[in-house]
Inverse folding.
């Protein structure tokens, strides 16, 4: 029951993070062309502030629940005298998941901070440039997230 609960939390965190990135890239961003640049940038600041806070929580839940499930499986096998080896799909998920987490930390601490500061200083070109960097790295993470989901589900 505990394992199933953690797996549910793990999947909900995936839905929030990967689903949120797909929504922003494919649906929100193209629709922003309807707004003038200052409004567009301010709206993105508000959207990203809320989204990145939620992703930070989802990240802790995702990595915490994932590692806990690995540890619990290893303990259960050790208890029955069997050796534990990481299944290849779990290795891929862990490595790519940690890679995604590092990319998120970079986005949040470098271009996002630059974006907020530029907007506060009314430097719209610098804010737009920083937002472009955020968009590229979010796209990288969205692709990685879809790959991890496919690896987890297919193998
Ligand atoms: C440190 C990072 C991660 C670790 C240690 C980890 C570990 C695990 C473990 C142990 C399971 C349970 C597998 C089972 O019971 O069959 C699982 C399931 C799953 N994980 Fe992860 N995970 C991590 C990150 C991610 C990420 C970043 C994603 C997607 C973006 C992801 C997507 C999934 C999915 C979709 C499942 C369900 C697979 C299924 O039931 O077939 N995980 N993960």
């Amino acid at each position: 029951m505990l394992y199933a609960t953690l797996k549910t939390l793990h999947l909900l965190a995936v839905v929030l993070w990967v689903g949120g990135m797909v929504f922003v890239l494919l649906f929100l961003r193209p629709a922003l062309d309807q707004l003038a640049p200052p409004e567009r940038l301010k709206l993105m600041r508000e959207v990203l502030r809320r989204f990145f806070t939620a992703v930070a929580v989802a990240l802790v839940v995702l990595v915490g629940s994932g590692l806990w499930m690995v540890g619990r499986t290893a303990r259960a096998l050790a208890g029955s005298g069997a050796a534990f080896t990481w299944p290849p799909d779990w290795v891929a998920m862990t490595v790519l998941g940690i890679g995604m987490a590092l990319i998120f930390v970079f986005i949040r601490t470098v271009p996002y901070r630059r974006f907020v500061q530029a907007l506060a200083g009314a430097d719209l070109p610098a804010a737009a440039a920083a937002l472009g960097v955020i968009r590229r790295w979010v796209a990288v993470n969205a692709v990685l997230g879809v790959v991890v989901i496919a690896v987890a589900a297919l193998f």
Summary: The mean pLDDT is 96. Residues 7, 10-11, 14, 18, 62-63, 66-67, 69-70, 90, 93-94, 97-98, 100, 145, 148-149, 152-153 surround protoporphyrin IX containing FE (CB under 6 Å). The longest helix spans residues 37-79.
